[in-house]
Amino acid sequence: MENKNYLQVSGLCKKFGNLEVLKGIDFSLGKGEILSIIGASGSGKTTLLRCLNFLEIADDGEIAIDGETIFDGSLYRAHKIKDTELREKRLHFGLVFQNFNLFPQYNVLQNVMLAPKLLKKGSTQELEEKAKSLINRVGLIDKLDNYPCQLSGGQQQRVSIARALALDPDILCFDEPTSALDPELTVEVLRVIKDLKQTGCTMVIVTHEMEFARNVSDRVIYMRDGLIEVEGTPEEVFDHSDNEHLHKFLNSGSI
Question: What is the DSSP string of 142-210?
Fold first, then answer.
């Protein structure tokens, strides 16, 4: 693998008032690898993802990509991050939300082109060509002119994946990408994520799809109560861990 510590997270902490949601998160991820984060509701999974994407600002800890520190909690406490700096940091990560978050007033092509256009990432023609290429990649080239209301949930999620890729993020993050979909539509979204793996895309995925986490991930993290309780390969986590809480979680019907 090109770089085993492409993403390095150290001592990440986050509080909301007196509630400590992340209590010191440490992990690393290689370039081109997929990390799946599993755990019960309230374990801190989504907060971790939001801190990586700077939708929430961690209170402490460090985040580094390819050897470059992009967040240092001690420096942040000394001086708040400016909005322009924050927007720049967010560009390292693409985020696919569980509820798609597409703009209803724009068609598929416009949704995918919008952010690169606002950030002046190229000429209109260049951006349109790139957007069409990404839309084709997720299997929706025949839906360019359709609006979100004309698409199934699975199609909307695939558009949101293309939109996240449009800014060329270093790491693509997914927050429960199939939780709002029925099983048939879930399959088509998971297929796109598997295809992205073949292209060497580095991904962090919060998921409740255990078979997907087992079959597609390079690393799996099990979180509980704001901490990482188990971390390893899918085999180590699903087949060889003796962690009692993990066993209860995997055997519960609430996944």
Answer: GGTT--GGGS-HHHHHHHHHHHHHTT--SEEEEESTTTTS-HHHHHHHHHHHHHHHHTT-EEEEE-S-H
Q: How far is residue 234's CA from residue 125's CA, in Å, rounded to a whole number?
A: 43
d(CA 15, CA 195): 36
Q: Would you state the structure tokens that stand for residue 106, as one six-digit string?
A: 């724009």
Separation CA 36–CA 45 (nearest Å): 10
Q: Are 181 and 153 in contact (CB under 8 A)?
A: yes
Structure tokens at 192: 């796109």
DSSP lists the bridge partners of residue 65 as 7, 68
Per residue of the chain (255 residues), give pLDDT as tens. 457 789 999 999 999 999 999 999 999 999 999 999 999 999 999 999 999 999 999 999 999 999 999 999 988 776 777 888 888 899 999 999 988 999 999 999 999 999 999 999 999 999 999 999 999 999 999 999 999 999 999 999 999 999 999 999 999 999 999 988 888 889 999 999 999 999 999 999 999 999 999 999 999 999 999 999 999 999 999 999 999 999 999 998 544
Q: Give the orientation angle of helix 108-118 with respect to helix 124-137, to 10 degrees.
A: 130
